[in-house]
Every structure is written in structure tokens, then in C-alpha cells.
Design brief:
Layout lengths: L1 H5 L20 H14 L7 H4 L3 H23 L5 H15 L4 E11 L8 H4 L7 E8 L5 E9 L4 H5 L3 H7 L2 H7 L6 E3 L2 E3 L3 E3 L10 E2 L8 H13 L1 H13 L12 H24 L13 E3 L5 E3 L2 H17 L4 H12 L1 H5 L4 H15 L7
Helix pairs in contact: 2-4, 4-12, 13-16, 14-16
């Protein structure tokens, strides 16, 4: 990130002296202070003493950091998906959710505006009883946000906010259908019926559009109950995305003390971009690679064709290994590895994964015939 920002030729990051001919803060300090401010959700002057810079320099560092991140990464990490991106998203959800045509999940979250002007509180105070601002987003299973809209008044519900979204305009002016036309996974079949449009999972508040799939409020038959359970389970992706987003960037979760919308709208945009960067880095394993939702699903087979391997397949493989250990049918090489592992007390006690600890303890009981005395 430091190299990408330096390539933007922003003068602020090249100055090495202050106006009084004193040595200015280092480049790392100018980048780390805004990151800590967004992560902890506190004003920028809180870390002035830690980074040995003035309050004015801290404010400028935050402002230029928001500008630099938006300039470097906005087009790549917070943009409308292309036909190729849409195809990989559908492939991801086909593997994970076992359904064709799913684009993502749509929902809203609120942020409290603590210092909302008195004259505006009537417009921003909703069902929460406090003045709030609304963030509406669409994310996939990896919690990568493909659409975001922030700054709407808290009095507006999910239905009203939808009328002001640029994403809805793309659905009406057929620009999103042009993206779908270049995707090889559309049209798709559900049962015996063919569909030519992707769909989005929403809750019961949203209008009954053809692209919105909602659960049934009063399911009667077993098929309706099964579908409602699947819809509610799959729509947890957006709730999980908001939880990860607010947990990592406390600036979006803590009450807002600024008086102007322009002051905190840019930091929220920066938090959204950084969230997508971290999500892409977690999936791809390298920040320099372009985000591909189906990256972990592409496993080249012996015949050269792509084979899809989902998390469910991986869990089934791990369960089979656990069952083998529980039944005592352990290979000789594995028995030797377990004995070597038991002899190393330090490695055993430093395990951080509790599931691995339990699994190995069961295997040791089967191999040794009793509780290991040296553990």
C-alpha cells in the first residue's frame, strides 16, 4: 500500500521538513496514524503523542490518506462487477449455497450520529430512537462488498432507501442486464424453469421485485419451511459482512461526533475499501492479485478440467479422517507421527486450534490405549 500511494505523486507524502525547517513525521507515521484512527474509532489527535506529530499534521494525514486510498483503490475494490466478476460470483454461490443465479445479499445497517444538529434530528431519528445514518450494501459469501450506499437519513427504511440507490437505476436502465448477457452462467435452470436474471436475497421489507428473493413469513408445507430456512441461512452473509466490517473498523461502529456529513463520509468510504482489500487478500493470499471469488474453488484435475471443491467437501474429508481416528483404523505412518508428537510436550501445549487438540487427543487414546500421562 505504501508503494501504491507513493506512485500517486501526492506532494504531502514527499515533504520531509515542516514550514519551520524542522524534520517532519516519517511516511510510515503518516500512514499508520489514519489506520489506527479508523481501527480504534477515535479522533486523530489521540495518537499525536504516540507518533510525535502535531494535531494539524495528524488531521492532514487523515485527510490525505482518505484521498490517496480512494484514488488508488476505488476503481478496483469498490466498483460495479464486470461480466467476468459476475460469473465467478455465481460460481462461488453455486458451490457454497448449491443454487444457480445468486448474486449476493442486500441489507442495511445504522450508525449513530451523536452530534447531529438539532434542526436535523427530526429527519435522522428513526426506529432506533437516535439520529442515525444508514449504510446499505450487497456482498457475496466472502463478505466482499459489490455495492454500497452511505449517508441516508435514519428515518428511511430499507424500502425508501432503495429508491435512491444507483444500483436500482442500473436494474431499470438495463445496464446490469448487459453485464449479465456477457456472463456464461446466465440463463440458468431452477427445476424445469429457465431464468435470465440473477437474484438477490433480501428480507421481507423490500418490494416484490423479480430479482429479490424473500423468505415466506408463514411457511406451511415442508417445502416452504425448507426454502425459508435456506433463505435465512444464506442471507446471513450480509449480516456477517457488517459484523466483520464494524468489528475491524470501529470508526463505522462507534457514535459519530462530527457535525458535517462531509467530514465522516470519506473515512467511511476508506473503511469500505480497506475492508474489501483485506477480504481479497484473505481469499487470494496476495494483495497484488486481482480478487477472484472462485479462486479457492478452481482445482485443476488430471484431465486438465476445473474441478469445484466446496467447503462442504473439505468438511466431509476432515470428518472421514476423524472417523478413522475414532475407530482406531490408523495407518502405521500416522501412528509414528502421533508418538513423535506426544513426545514433544512443548508443541502439544502450544496448540491454538481447540478442534485439532481434541482430534489428536482422541487419536492418542486409541494408539496408546489410555490417557497420555505426559500431556
Amino acid at each position: 500500500m505504501m508503494e501504491d500511494i507513493m506512485q500517486q505523486n501526492i506532494r504531502f507524502y514527499y515533504t520531509t521538513e515542516t514550514r519551520h525547517r524542522r524534520k517532519a513525521a516519517s511516511l510510515k507515521a503518516r500512514l499508520l496514524l489514519p489506520l489506527k484512527t479508523l481501527a480504534y474509532g477515535v479522533p486523530c489527535h489521540v495518537f499525536c503523542d504516540y507518533f510525535q506529530m502535531s494535531q494539524q499534521m495528524a488531521q492532514e494525514s487523515c485527510a490525505y490518506f482518505n484521498f490517496a486510498v480512494a484514488k488508488c483503490y476505488h476503481k478496483e475494490y469498490l466498483c460495479v462487477p464486470t461480466s467476468r466478476d459476475l460469473g465467478t460470483i455465481l460460481k462461488l454461490h453455486k458451490t457454497v449455497q448449491n443454487v444457480d443465479g445468486m448474486f449476493g445479499s442486500l441489507d442495511c445497517t445504522h450508525t449513530v450520529w451523536k452530534n447531529c444538529p438539532k434542526a436535523w434530528q427530526g429527519s435522522y431519528k428513526g426506529k432506533e430512537g437516535k439520529s442515525t445514518l444508514v449504510l446499505e450494501a450487497i456482498c457475496n459469501h466472502h463478505t466482499f462488498f459489490w455495492h454500497t450506499s452511505y449517508g441516508n437519513a435514519g428515518t428511511m427504511n430499507d424500502f425508501n432507501i432503495l429508491n435512491f440507490l444507483p444500483f436500482l437505476e442500473r436494474l431499470f436502465d438495463d445496464s446490469f442486464e448487459e453485464i449479465e448477457s456477457g456472463c456464461k452462467r446466465i440463463p440458468f435452470m431452477v427445476g424445469d424453469q429457465e431464468f435470465c436474471q440473477s437474484f438477490i436475497l433480501v428480507d421481507s421489507v423490500y418490494p416484490p421485485y423479480s430479482r429479490f428473493v424473500k423468505g415466506m413469513t408463514q411457511p406451511i408445507t415442508e417445502e416452504e419451511r425448507k426454502f425459508t430456512r435456506w433463505q435465512e441461512k444464506s442471507r446471513k452473509d450480509i449480516e456477517r459482512g457488517f459484523g466483520i466490517f464494524k468489528g475491524c473498523w470501529q470508526y463505522a461502529a462507534n457514535p459519530i461526533y462530527a457535525l458535517s456529513l462531509k467530514v465522516f463520509s470519506k473515512p467511511i468510504l476508506t473503511c469500505l475499501i480497506l475492508h474489501n482489500i483485506l477480504t481479497a487478500d484473505q481469499v487470494m493470499g496476495d494483495m497484488s492479485k486481482q480478487y477472484d471469488p472462485s479462486f479457492l474453488l478452481d482445482v485443476e484435475g488430471e484431465d486438465g478440467n476445473d474441478v469445484e471443491q466446496s467447503d462442504e467437501m473439505y468438511e466431509m474429508q476432515m470428518k472421514s479422517v476423524h472417523n478413522i481416528a475414532n475407530e482406531g483404523s490408523i495407518a502405521e505412518g500416522f501412528v509414528q507421527d502421533v508418538h513423535d508428537f506426544a513426545n514433544n510436550r512443548d508443541r502439544w501445549t502450544c496448540l491454538s486450534n481447540r478442534n485439532e487438540f481434541n482430534w489428536l487427543s482422541i487419536a492418542l487414546r486409541k494408539v496408546l490405549g489410555n490417557e497420555p500421562s505426559n500431556i
